[in-house]
Structures are given as C-alpha cells and as structure tokens.
Amino acid sequence: MTFRDAARPLAGVRIVEISSFVAVPLGGMTLAQLGAEVIRVDPVGGAADYHRWPVTADGESIYWAGLNKGKLSAAVDVRSAAGQELITRLVVDCGILITNVAGRQWHSYEELVKLRPDLIHVEVSGRADGGTGVDYTVNAGVGFPLVTGSPESGGPVNHVLPAWDIACGLYVALAVTAALRHRDATGEGQRVGIPLENVALATAGNLSFLTEVMVNGVARERIGNSIYGQYGQTFVSGDGVSFMVVALTGRHFRDLAELTGTTKAVAALGDALGADFGDEGQRYRHRDALTGLFTVWFTDHTAEEIGTALSTTSVLWERYRTFAETASDPKVTDNPLFSALAQPRIGTHLAPGLPLQVDGAYRPAVPAPALGDHTAEVLRGRLGLSEDEIRRLTEAGTVS
C-alpha cells in the first residue's frame, strides 16, 4: 500500500454535510482529511456561522475557513421545494448525510431512507430528548463550571474550549467510519444520533466526576491550578513568568524535591504530618504544604534558569504561553503538522493538517472553499445537470 492510500483510507467515500458552528463541521473536516469527498451544503448567503468571529479586516470569517478545509461547498435555497429536492437527490447519490440541523422532516432519516435503503444518517442534536443545546449551555448543566477556577471563586467559571463540540465532532467521524464498515459487511445503512449533552455526560461519567458523587457522596471541589489526586501546581519565577509543574510519579516528585533543594524538608514535613509522600494521594492531600516548600526555589530563579534546570529532570513542566507566543514558537513553525496554506480571502498562514502521523508523515491542510464555490461542479458531476439547467436554477435563486 502506498503512503497516499494509507493516508486517505476514505478515498471514494462521498458525504453530504448540512451544518453550522463546531461539532459537525469538525466531523466533516476530519472525514475530508481522511480522504472522503465532503460536500457542505449551505443556504444561499451562508448559514449562521459563515461570518462568525474571528474575522479579517475585510469581514471574512477566519473561523469558518478553519473548520471547512478540504471540503466542497454548494449553496442552495434550503427553504424552497426545488432546493430541497436538489439536496435530497445529492444525499441519495452520496449515501451519507451528517448534520446538526435537526427537526427538518425533508432530510430526516425516515424520509431519506425511503429513497436510499442503505443510507448512513448521522445527526447531532443538543439533547437526547430533542431539546436544543450548545456547548456552553450543556457544560453549564453538567457541572464543570462549578469546579473550575480558584477555591475563592463564588460563581461559575466557564472555559473557552468548546470541549463537547470537539468530542462530538470526532464521534461524528467515528460513527461514519463504523457505519461504513457495517454497510460494507451487511449492505445495511445506519441511523446514528449523537446528542451533545450525552457526549458531555458520558465524559463526565467516564472521568468519574459523576461516579464520585454516586459512590462517595461528595462532589469535586475547586482546586485552582492544582491537579486532582496528583501533585501539580503553578509556580511563578522571580522575573514573573508562570510555569505549570507536574509530578505524577514517585520519580517525578523526588526529582522536584532534589531540584528545589527541599529533599530533607519534604522528609521532615512527611514525618510531622504522618504522611508518606511516596503515595500520590498523600502528595495531593498535602499539596499546599509542599507547594510552600517548593515556591522559594522558583521565586529565587529566573524563567530561563528554571527552564534550563527542569529540562535536566524527569519532572513534567511547561511555561504558560499566549496564543501569540505559541503561533511563533518552533512547536508550530518547525512542526511538520503545519504547512503554509494560501487560503483565499484570508491570506497565507501556517495551518494544521490531520494530526495523525501515517507512515511517518502528515497530510497537509487543503484550503477551505468560499460559499458556493463548487455548486455548479456538484450539480453537474453528481446530479448530471446540464449547463442550461444550472443556469436556470441560478437565475431563479435556487442555487448560488
């Protein structure tokens, strides 16, 4: 098998995507990066996310371009009967639909499977009961904002990473690949539902946030930048640079004590507290006392000295960086995951490809389309429409 084949296992698979925002666009992009032909169908003028921030000085959405790399784009009047009929024909031709536009009977599984019995239909919804929800509301209802932040925080603390959207998007890609395997083996399609809230609840359960309450009767507490059940803490250098330092194993912890010159002090603290710091739970329980011992060394050294010293140990660490610092750091600029991408309307920049290294290499990013870039190509190539038919549809406003 050549590298090209290995890196594009879904080559020959065709998928229609009707979506907006994060989860399904990410799923579609991931499938495209794996070699599938993904046709994103949007309303004429764009869906709700077509101008989402961040945008360029000219108002072009950097966000939209980032989540739609490598796709084809068709713009169709989704409210008209003619437009819906075109999209239906396209889904039937491709055999796979991924969408988070729930509740539309015309592209529901029940309607489409009548026309394509082996249809794979993956639909993301907000909640399992059919209710609406987005990452930020789902997260609020699961519990994470009330254990995020410092112990002194009085109210909820939201985080900026749409974690459930991201997980949900990867589940979309996983669902399609699993359904394809099932269809290849049996000739049967599948209807897959992925409620965003259930992705969050499953994760909270798998990571024991919910189980802890069920079994022990206690909820997770706020611990700031500490790591639950382990020793990890933020330290600040003498010149004001913050570091995250983590000691997961006994070796990590011994190295941290030796580096900071506190080995004897740590042993004395353990004797005084009756604690065995060879046990990770004891290190966590007495984290504040241990941090008090280690802090002196960090405040007595510059960031450069700290980084140099930590690099000689087994301790896990990193200095806190802004996105601007990371964008210019060798972890991006010298990383083969990133390559120069000439993105129309946005500009040339380093863009990540699929973060899977296959046979020692990464597939580079492919530019995102503009809205409707491939409408005529899709209608001609997939539905067999003539140039006159495409012209009439364009003049009628059915496509753009």
TrEMBL record:
InterPro entries linked: CoA-transferase_III (IPR050509), CoA-Trfase_fam_III (IPR003673), CoA-Trfase_III_dom3_sf (IPR044855), CoA-Trfase_III_dom_1_sf (IPR023606)
GO molecular function, one term: isomerase activity
Keywords: Isomerase
Keyword Isomerase set for record: yes
One matching Pfam family: CoA_transf_3
Name listed for the protein in its UniProt record: 2-methylfumaryl-CoA isomerase
Keyword Metal-binding: no
Domain of life: Bacteria
